[in-house]
Fold:
Amino acid sequence: MSVEILDGATIVNFMEDEEAFNVQICDRFAHLDSDHDGRLSYGEMLKELQCLRVFETHFGVDVETDPDELVRVYDSLFAQFDHDLDGTVDLEEFKSETKLMMLAMANGMGFLPVQMVLEEDSFLKKAAEWESAKLVA
Structure:
């Protein structure tokens, strides 16, 4: 994990760079697709869904959550990605839903800088790194 400063514009600008965003989407999808069939099963997506950190934490410490509630939340999130409801997520579904989630985060953050603790391989971390690289260039 690392601490980064970013705002909604960082996320939006990263997604608008189609090449950079697509590279990250394809890399992440390939990493998750452990059986290399071009589709993500629920099991393959579960770790990614858990990284979304949708549950309350207190100063970074996870709060104990009811296991049944966890199952319902992750089932619902998976269904959000599985647009055609075939029980798997293809690359286009993954890209489309990831983009929608990132836009929602950008809209929620607004355009004032926020300091955040980010997972090393998260899309938000990739957006912050992309912005830093643009500033250096």
